[in-house]
Amino acid sequence: MNFGNSMKKIFLLGTLTLFFVGFLFAENYYVDAVNGSDSHLGTSPEEAWKTVNKVNETTFSSGDVIHFRAGQVWRESLRCRSGAENMPLTYTSYGGGAKPLFLASIDLCFENFWLYKGDNIWCVIPASFSTGRTPDYTDVGNIILTKRGNTEKMAAWKRWSIKELTQQADFYHDTKNDLLYFYSEENPALLYSEMEAAMKHNIFLMNGCEYLIIDGLTAAYTGAHGAQGSNTRNSIIRNCDFLWIGGSHLYTRNEKPTRYGNGIEFWGESRDNLVESCYFEQIYDVAMTNQGPDPCLVRNIVWRDNKIYRCEQAYEFWLSNSESRMQNVVFENNECIDSGFGWSHEQRPDKSGTHILAYAMESKEFDIHYRNNIFNNARIAMIRYYNTRLPEADLNNNTYIQKAENCDKLPLFYWGNIRATWEEYREVTGNDKNSTFTCE
User: Fold this and answer.
1) Which of 87, 174, 325, 395 has the most CB atoms around it within 10 Å of its CB?
2) Do 132 and 253 sit in the same domain of this protein?
3) Residue 299 domain boundaries
């Protein structure tokens, strides 16, 4: 008798038994924004809860699954909780239709919201809105507009004083007095069929979470981040959409305001996380990022099979502390299209328009891999490292496409003070030996 093999089988059976027993006692919860009630049990579609706030206030067990009704909308942030190994806590959908939609915006498209102040300036008081909640109106980062008779979305232009409001769809948020001003030739609600004021609220909150799954949800219309977490571990975000994100005020330095807003941000410590099969469109800053100023470990982070369209940057990282470590960060099989051609580019003072961005990279370990990606058309650069460590990165089997004649002669690859063409970049760094570059 092979005692070692027998013990392995017993151990495996025991582990599987614990795994299935855990799921046997796991509970399913349901949330229905139209027909639900927070007084319900929440444990069946017929007894569904109504609000995200009810979900946020509930203590769940590892392995529980929270289902949001497809085709419905919540104007609330989701505060995610942790599960346990082999028994993650899952937030997903149920029913047919569009992915459940989470917004951090206020609908301004009501004629009686607007008060005419003269000289084509209209004013609305955000705190007077009837929204079913009392959020912290720290800043309106963007107003997403659709003209009546049209379907194409556009961004209003954020200004920093009333005096700067001179053109249609300029706006200014006086955060001190909580007043929103909008330049329009007539009542804005008569000109637009959609006016969504994106507030400074993260939509999916993941701080300190582990063994978490977010699957098949949409985050849109926020001035801050779509999903954000520090010290997030062993977690998965998949099949989610992140649309029209960012634009809120982060800080003012030397009298120059800086805005921000990312699709998914892992801040500081981040380990064993996967982001896959997500869609990102019209992000003010970057679709996906790892970053942080404090000593931290960033390990086994995989970004794969995602599509990034018209964001200012597709993927960014920076770790500015010399005690930080980066181990096995992988960006693979992603499709990045028209970086720098989104709504934010013209409004930004710091235009970058690149697929890959890296700021300060002082970590004592640097292990990152970009492979099997499609980088299709960038406004300024294919890759933009503000540090000199690009030759240390591993890039290969990527496809680069640029919409410009003789683009192979353009300096589209930046690192440190170097601006290089395709062949110069490959020769100096040794990267992308099996990759291709095409002009269209």
Assistant:
1) 395
2) no
3) 201-439
Please, are residues 217 and 90 in contact by the beta-carbon 8 Å criterion?
no
Dig out the tokens for 432 from the structure: 């992308």
**Judgement on whether residues 120 and 133 belong to the same structural domain of the protein:** yes
- The tens place of each residue's pLDDT in the chain, 440 residues long, gives 343 444 344 444 444 444 444 455 699 999 999 999 999 999 999 999 999 999 999 999 999 999 999 999 999 999 999 999 999 999 999 999 999 999 999 999 999 889 999 999 999 876 555 444 434 457 999 999 999 999 999 999 999 999 999 999 999 999 888 899 999 999 999 999 999 999 999 999 999 999 999 999 999 999 999 999 999 999 999 999 999 999 999 999 998 999 999 999 999 999 999 999 999 999 999 999 999 999 999 999 999 999 999 999 999 999 999 999 999 999 999 999 999 999 999 999 999 999 999 999 999 999 999 999 999 999 999 999 999 999 999 999 999 999 999 999 999 999 999 999 999 999 999 999 999 999 99
Domain boundary among the residues 196, 223, 251 is at 196
Residue 240, amino acid: C
Alpha-carbon dihedral sign for residues 431, 435, 439, 440 = negative
Q: Would the pTM count as exceeding 0.70?
A: yes
Residue 321, amino acid: N
Cα-based torsion angle of the residue sequence 252, 254, 256, 259 in order, rounded to the nearest 10 degrees? -40
Q: Are 195 and 107 in contact (CB under 8 A)?
A: yes
Do 397 and 250 belong to one domain?
yes
